[in-house]
Every structure is written in structure tokens, then in C-alpha cells.
Automatic annotation (TrEMBL):
It comes from the Bacteria. It is a multi-pass membrane protein. GO terms for biological process: transmembrane transport. The chain crosses the membrane at residues 20-42, 62-86, 116-136, 142-160, 181-204, 210-231. This is ABC transmembrane type-1 domain-containing protein. GO terms for cellular component: membrane. Its main location: membrane. It is found in: Membrane. Residues 119-246 form the ABC transmembrane type-1 domain. PROSITE patterns: ABC_TM1 (PS50928). Keywords: Membrane, Transmembrane, Transmembrane helix.
Length: 246
């Protein structure tokens, strides 16, 4: 795999098909709205509890804190789930763009809908596995995310079941470890300037939030396009991929 060629072709596909960025942008906007709704309804309730009220009724304060934490977890789960759907739709559209086919939101949506059930199951499995790995001192979560980086790509491009997609991603990474590590380093290399730029613009009143949302939608969509292009160049041998039981 020539990483420079892969990178250039990913940029070309992104430049020639700006619709590729729409699903990720829509998912980020949706997540922002959900977070604002939650913050607008839950936080005032917690803010009304004074120090004296907390001391006098610690059970109520604990219940309120628990409800807030639970709400945060629910919102995070919903946001992650929508993000995975956007990722899946972008994968399908990126595959078409990289093959020189016409890309529209309708074709991307149709492709997403046709694979929605295995995509949802795979997304849940990836979230659970990676989150469990992060609970185990973070490093296992990073390793899991690394080996599962092509799971959703496999679901969308190979028509695999959820379990087989996870197994296929693991085998693909193991068989192409060098290329996978180079891809990871490239992603990390792209992440750092994005975080620095985001830190510089996020403090701009109102406009900063808008620019930050656009920046991360471009970043996440491009990483998805890059993963699809990398996957195209790997020795995947989909017909002999092992299946991980769901």
C-alpha cells in the first residue's frame, strides 16, 4: 500500500464530492441539539439545589446526580449511535466516489437502509467492546478500536453479518499490520492539528461553535473516506474471513 497515493486519492474524492461531508455534519448537529435539550432541562433542576438543601436531603441530591449521570450516558450513547449511522452512510458514499460512481445523498441513504440492521448491531457491538476496553485501564480499548477499525466498512462493502464483520476486521488488520499501523499513525497525525485548530476557534463567541462543528464533520468524514480507500488497497480475502459470534 502506497500511503501517499491513498492519501491523495482520498483528498481528491473528498474535493470532488462535497456531499460526503453531509452525513457527519448532520450527525454532529443532531448531537448538539440533543445535548442542548438535555442541558436545558436537567441542569436547572440540579442548580436549584443549594448547599443547605443538599446537606438536609442528601438522598435527593444523590438521586438528582444519578439522574444527571444517567442522562449524560444516554445522550452519549444516542450521539455515538447516530455517529455510527453517519459513518456507515459515508462509507457507502465514499466507496461509490472512489470507484468513480455518481454520489448523491439518496444513493447513500438507500445503501445505508439496505444494511441498517447489521450496521446497527455492529455499531452496538463495537461501542460495547471498546467501552469495556476503556474501563480496563484504557489501553485495551485503544487496541480494540484499532483492530475493529474496518468493522463498519466490512458491513457496508462486503454485506457481512455483524459478527463476521468484526472477525473480518480483526483478520484484515492482523494480515496487514504494517499498513494498519501506518494508517493509524496518519490518523493520529491528522488529529493533532485538528485539535489545535479547534482549541484556537472554540473560544470565539457563537461562531466558534459553528466552526468547530464544521471542522470536526470534515475531519471525521475524511477519516472515514481514508479508511475506505485504505480498505480498497488491502489484502482482505473476504471469503475466508473468520466469524466472531454475536
Amino acid at each position: 500500500m502506497n500511503i501517499l497515493t491513498v492519501f491523495k486519492e482520498s483528498i481528491t474524492a473528498s474535493r470532488d464530492n462535497p456531499l460526503l461531508f453531509v452525513p457527519m455534519l448532520a450527525s454532529l448537529v443532531f448531537s448538539m441539539i440533543v445535548n442542548l435539550v438535555f442541558a436545558g432541562s436537567a441542569m436547572p433542576m440540579l442548580g436549584n439545589l443549594s448547599g443547605e438543601q443538599i446537606a438536609a436531603n442528601p438522598e435527593r441530591a444523590l438521586a438528582g446526580a444519578g439522574a444527571a449521570i444517567g442522562g449524560i450516558m444516554i445522550v452519549s450513547t444516542i450521539s455515538s449511535f447516530v455517529s455510527f449511522l453517519a459513518h456507515g452512510m459515508t462509507v457507502g458514499m465514499a466507496d461509490m466516489a472512489l470507484k468513480g460512481e455518481s454520489v448523491t445523498l439518496q444513493t447513500g441513504w438507500d445503501r445505508l437502509v439496505s444494511r441498517i440492521i447489521p450496521l446497527v448491531i455492529t455499531s452496538v457491538m463495537v461501542i460495547v467492546i471498546v467501552m469495556f476496553g476503556f474501563i480496563l485501564l484504557i489501553l485495551p480499548g485503544l487496541i480494540a478500536a484499532f483492530f475493529l477499525m474496518f468493522a463498519l466498512v466490512a458491513v457496508m462493502l462486503e454485506n457481512f453479518s455483524a459478527g463476521k464483520a468484526l472477525g473480518h476486521s480483526i483478520k484484515t488488520v492482523k494480515k496487514n499490520m504494517g499498513a494498519a499501523l501506518i494508517t493509524l499513525l496518519l490518523i493520529l497525525g491528522l488529529t493533532f492539528p485538528v485539535l489545535v485548530l479547534n482549541f484556537a476557534i472554540v473560544f470565539i463567541p457563537i461562531l466558534g461553535v459553528i466552526l468547530s462543528t464544521i471542522l470536526f464533520s470534515i475531519y471525521t468524514a475524511f477519516i472515514t473516506i481514508l479508511l475506505v480507500r485504505v480498505y480498497h488497497s488491502l489484502d482482505v480475502q473476504s471469503d475466508r474471513s473468520p466469524e466472531v459470534e454475536a
